[in-house]
Design brief:
Strand content: 35-45%
Order of helices and strands: EHEEHEEHEEHH
Low-confidence stretches: none
Number of helices: 5
Helix content: 25-40%
Radius of gyration: 16 Å
Shape: globular
Mean pLDDT: 93
Strand order of the largest sheet: 1-3-2-4-5
Structural class: alpha+beta
Number of strands: 7
């Protein structure tokens, strides 16, 4: 069995919550980061759900994130922990293996990685919300791990400061929610 990788595109990038052997800038083709999932625990509650990131399938785009290499003998337990973290209270993400490109100077290569992809049509899928609806939620939601605004701000900060990436759509949502 080869190396075991996990791809993070939201809070996993800045708060993985597990031990890893290596980390790398990585790209997941045909997807983009989107504020498209309701959060009923971490960033909101049942009465006022928050929003967190998911992935939307887009043929001509790619999502830049961080890939974490984990020890083969720890992969199963980390996978289980991530299922609990990402799928609380309901199973709203499908854990699937996707090809990602690791982007390290002199080490650019394709590997299989565990990726959590939203389940379209799930009650927590919020891809249908308008920009104004998302902004309202960003301004008001709060859950056990903080606000959706803090979550989005932390993710965008890491993307810019560490990866040199700017997500203009999400930066505009953040800017409008802070007004």
């Amino acid at each position: 069995m080869g190396d075991r990788w996990i791809f993070g595109y939201g809070s996993l990038m800045w708060s993985p919550g597990f031990t890893y052997e290596d980390r790398s800038l990585a790209m997941l083709p045909h997807y983009r980061r989107s504020l498209c999932m309701y959060s009923f625990v971490a960033r909101g509650n049942k009465e006022e759900p928050g929003l967190v990131l998911g992935l939307e399938s887009v043929a001509d785009d790619a999502c830049v994130g961080i890939a974490f290499k984990v020890a083969t003998n720890q992969f199963a337990s980390i996978n289980e922990e991530l299922h609990q973290r990402e799928n609380t209270p309901l199973i709203c993400y499908e854990a699937t293996i996707k090809q990602i490109q690791l982007i390290k100077p002199g080490q650019e290569k394709w590997v299989d990685a565990l990726v959590f992809v939203p389940i379209p049509g799930h009650s927590q899928f919020a891809g249908h919300l308008s920009q104004d609806e998302k902004i309202k939620i960003l301004k008001t939601s709060k859950g056990e791990r903080g606000t959706s605004l803090e979550y989005l701000s932390s993710t965008l900060h890491l993307l810019d400061a560490e990866l040199g990436e700017k997500d203009e759509h999400l930066l505009e949502l953040l800017r409008l929610a802070q007004i």
